[in-house]
Backbone:
């Protein structure tokens, strides 16, 4: 491949991969069985030039490969504030990755429908929330593949044999104990982005082990925890004792090693973390947005009864970001009607952070996503309030931010 | 004439020569949502370097955090001429390395990336003049 026998596209991919293997001092390359490409997000001319160069040189993926969100909701972008020039270029980037053989899934949560790797499977995934979910919840093995390298792995079918691909590097490093968190809060959706935000901040690039959870979290709660931890920190793998597959026990999570640090997570720390996810001061509200990572079928099921018989305040927009596939499932399950009557909208293929869809008059937004809450202030120059899904719906109806504080007041 | 006050031996992750004013933080950074490649400004409002311009500077941060789109943003910055002149980290940061390698492939413009021992990294100060050499040597100048 490196000598060009598989064509110049594969050669370029292998050249980049080999240089990265040297950076990591990898002993060898290893085979993968799948890839998820984050490079699909349109950032600017350079990423597009890279994609079109690779596609034009004949690069083709060697393993089943899904696409992360793109820079465009391909069929609905004109309903929003996306400039034409952006749409043209983002679309060209979508075409280039499809030309290389990637499946047009356009989602940051491929693990909930399009591609769900098995325990122990070696994969090359981009997109921080997808990486942490695949490693932690599914027990598949991926490093944190950055944009531009993910596609090189897919085109060569190989990765440097380093990091989280190797069992010995997957042991927990720090221990975070939930000591006094009431069950009622542990069962609440809003708990998971908050604890994830805190875990990411404390763990940074170390592998955290979370102990003391006394309820069984749902898949979407684990998704929310991981996404938040991968925003505030560099978490690519967490272990939740008794829940995630590599952590049946505390000692298994640490592979019988000792934690480098032990932190008791108090309610005070959780309240502070929750507060950090909110930058808005007052109660003004322009947009409620749910679905980062992309909304799942289970989340649509949870949302629909909250919306029934209600209508969003005329001043407030209500948006759910999800994938093409999930919208089809939700539609078949009859879950979109309630959203429509509520006055809500759906965006697919992308999200508010990956496409310039929001008009400038949107200054204050509210979300139940730790990831949206983390990134929105800097990337969109908006004020943000974090709240539970129910808080988000209530606020959309009332036209102003309102949150139920009762679960967070325990000592 | 500036005189050398300190010589640090780092590990060259992507080789190259550069010099510039240091911009230093012990906080890791995400370029996605944290770096505006159109201006070279650090825009993560939670980061201590928020509001600073890193274009042409020698940026010293321990490692990247968060989004895997950091590499793409750094590549855009190279193309737009707003990238740091060099990047110093404490460990091997694969995101910075990759962006630099692809910048070399596409534009023949790699950014020198050097990994320093944490104790050496701790000596760096924002505002001082740094030169980075092919072999990973970093000189602090008066």
Residues:
């Amino acid at each position: 491949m490196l000598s060009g026998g598989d064509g110049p596209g594969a050669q370029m991919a292998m050249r980049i991969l080999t240089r990265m293997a040297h950076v990591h001092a990898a002993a060898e390359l290893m085979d993968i069985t799948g890839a998820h490409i984050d490079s699909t997000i349109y950032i600017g001319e350079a990423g597009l030039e890279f994609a079109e160069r690779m596609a034009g040189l004949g690069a083709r993926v060697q393993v089943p490969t899904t696409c992360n969100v793109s820079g465009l909701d391909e069929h609905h972008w004109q309903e929003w504030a996306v400039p034409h020039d952006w749409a043209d270029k983002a679309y060209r980037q979508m075409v280039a990755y499809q030309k290389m053989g990637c499946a047009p899934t356009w989602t940051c949560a491929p693990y909930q429908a399009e591609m769900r790797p098995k325990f122990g499977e070696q994969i090359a995934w981009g997109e921080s929330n997808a990486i942490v979910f695949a490693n932690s919840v599914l027990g598949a093995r991926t490093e944190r593949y950055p944009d531009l390298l993910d596609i090189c792995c897919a085109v060569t079918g190989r990765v440097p044999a380093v990091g989280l691909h190797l069992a010995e590097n997957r042991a927990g490093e720090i221990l975070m104990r939930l000591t006094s968190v009431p069950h009622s809060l542990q069962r609440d959706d809003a708990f998971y982005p908050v604890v994830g935000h805190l875990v990411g901040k404390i763990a940074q690039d170390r592998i955290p082990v979370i102990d003391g959870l006394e309820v069984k979290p749902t898949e979407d709660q684990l998704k929310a925890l991981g996404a938040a931890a991968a925003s505030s920190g560099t978490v690519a793998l967490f272990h939740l004792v008794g829940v995630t597959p590599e952590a049946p026990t505390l000692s298994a999570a640490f592979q019988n090693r000792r934690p480098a640090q032990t932190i008791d997570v108090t309610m005070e720390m959780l309240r502070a973390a929750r507060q950090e996810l909110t930058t808005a001061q007052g109660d003004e509200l322009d947009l409620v947005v749910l679905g980062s990572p992309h909304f799942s079928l289970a989340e649509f099921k949870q949302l629909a009864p909250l919306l029934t018989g209600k209508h969003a305040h005329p001043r407030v927009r209500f948006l759910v970001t999800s994938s093409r596939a999930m919208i089809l499932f939700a539609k078949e399950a009859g879950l979109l009607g309630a959203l429509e009557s509520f006055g809500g909208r759906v965006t697919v293929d992308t999200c508010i952070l990956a496409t310039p869809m929001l008009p400038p008059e949107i200054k204050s937004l509210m979300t139940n996503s730790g990831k949206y809450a983390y990134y929105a202030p800097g990337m969109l120059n908006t004020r943000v309030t974090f709240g539970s899904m129910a808080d988000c719906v209530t606020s959309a109806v009332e036209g102003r931010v309102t949150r139920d504080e009762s679960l967070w007041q325990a000592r | 004439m500036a005189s050398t006050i300190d010589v640090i031996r780092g590990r060259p992750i992507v080789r190259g020569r550069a010099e510039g004013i240091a911009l230093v933080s012990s906080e890791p950074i995400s370029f996605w949502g944290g770096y505006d490649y159109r201006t070279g400004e650090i825009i993560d409002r939670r980061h201590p370097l928020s509001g600073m311009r890193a274009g042409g500077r020698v940026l010293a941060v321990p490692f990247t955090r968060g989004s895997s789109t950091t590499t793409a943003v750094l590549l855009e910055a190279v193309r737009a001429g707003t990238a740091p002149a060099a990047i110093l980290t404490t460990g091997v940061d694969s995101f910075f390395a990759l962006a630099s390698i692809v910048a070399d492939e596409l534009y023949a413009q790699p950014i020198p990336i050097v990994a320093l021992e944490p104790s050496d990294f701790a000596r760096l100060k924002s505002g001082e003049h740094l030169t980075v050499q092919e072999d990973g040597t970093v000189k602090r100048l008066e």
